[in-house]
Amino acid sequence: MNIEEFREFGKASVDYIADYFENIRKIDVISKVEPGYLKTKLPENVPPTGEPWQKVLQDVDRVIVPGLTHWHSPHFHAYFPTANSFPGIVGELFLSGLGCLSKDWDSNPACIELEVRMMDWLAKILGLPGEFLNSSEGPGGGVIQNAASESTLVGLLCGKQRALRDTLKQHPNLDETYIIPKLVAYTSKESNSSIEKAGLLASVTMRLLPTDKNGSLRGDVLLEAIIRDKDDGLIPCCVVATLGTTGSCAFDNLDELGRVCSNGGIWLHVDAAYAGAAFACPEYRYLMKGIENVDSFNFNPHKWMLVNSDCSAMWFKNTKDVERAFKVKATLPKIPSFKPELEHWQIPTSRRFRALKLWFVLRIYGIEGIQKHIRQQISLAKFFEHLARIWGLSALDLGGEDSLTQELLDEISRRNKIFLMPYYYREKLVVRFVICSRFTEKSDILYAWREILSLVKHEEPYIHN
Ligand code: PLP
Fold first, then answer.
1. Which residue among 146, 151, 188, 192 is best mutated to probe the pocket of ligand 1, counting the most ligand atoms within 8 A of its Cβ?
2. For the whole model, what pTM was predicted?
3. Which of 1, 45, 238, 301 is the residue whose CA sits 20 to 30 A from 320?
4. What pLDDT digit, counting tens, does each position of 205-244 carry?
5. From the CB of residue 104, how many other CB atoms can be counted at a distance below 10 Å?
6. Could you name the domain of life of the organism this protein comes from (predicted)?
7. How many angstroms separate the alpha carbon of residue 273 from the centre of ligand 1?
8. What CATH architecture applies to the domain 100-353?
């Protein structure tokens, strides 16, 4: 492909995507293809000679789009929002167009310096304590990771490493092989499955603790578990608190957990993957009370803050902890040209220029635009609450057997007018309702609510508060 063809292909593709969004309201939200549908539509082997881009674009339309679930349809109310915005899309185009990775500063100065500044912008938007900023006097700082799952693993590995170091300091007669199998971490039963997975990957036992009736992990439950484990000779090393659980958007009591962790010298990581974006609006910051006791904090601008995936923001109160955990001896020892050295705060060796799309979104929306987006989506959720009396991620319980709820979901799915997912809330199957698409409007909520009510056969749905 030469540069003229690249221009044509690029322009036609932007037009295609613009048309897609213009028509998204008319498209069925879930694809109805059968498993294996693609097999008959594509050849088994690579074409022996190159094909024209026009044919490829036609096949996107013919083969790929019919097999899509439309996450940005205004009728998509399943899972969680995945960010998408026009500045975010163009940002992605630029970062892949410019195509430069970075390792250290010398490998790509703009990438590192923009990321350092963008992480400070983001921290300020959320109202995080100043000590997390890259520009702070102290050792705090922030970096863009690939995903919340990866950030949790990084936080856990920091906690593991710090507990190992502290234990060796207190008991120099012990060795690593004795200490490591005794390390234990904690999270709530409501936390995302990626937390349990981080425990597996880090080889640290991850305890899933019960929550209160609001789905919140409380300090007394944590303390009890820690005392029990210490009595059994185990070594607590990390707590992963969730601000905004995937299932019901519950918030752990960070204030209480933070006090337990700081008294016990235990690493506290916050997973605010989805709901963290709400802290851009000061009226929701009460939900992160206790943030001063947190060691690492993560949220995904790629979920609810309009930055296309991937872009997961992570801050450390003391980046020396992550450097101790991750910094390996350089093959070519040299004095760094620039600090911070972000490459030592992450698992991959290199990084994409993700700060570029973050910059596009933050500049083009501004704080006001971001807040407007969050408030608009929460007001739609409240409108659904008004219709169904719930907040954020809503959960409908039909009041009868789980099978009734399943039947409703099956029928909703068969009709394909809206897309909802089930969830076990306090051991009962409920229907989750999430505001996901930035195209969703009040009329779409009414449409969804009418669709649900028209299919509830037996009685008024019971609404969880
Ligand atoms: N944590 C929470 C609370 C989530 O809701 C999710 C995804 O839904 C994750 C973690 C995992 O996020 P990621 O896909 O960025 O790893």
1. 192
2. 0.93
3. 301
4. 999 999 999 999 999 999 999 999 999 999 999 999 999 9
5. 18
6. Eukaryota
7. 5
8. 3-Layer(aba) Sandwich (3.40)
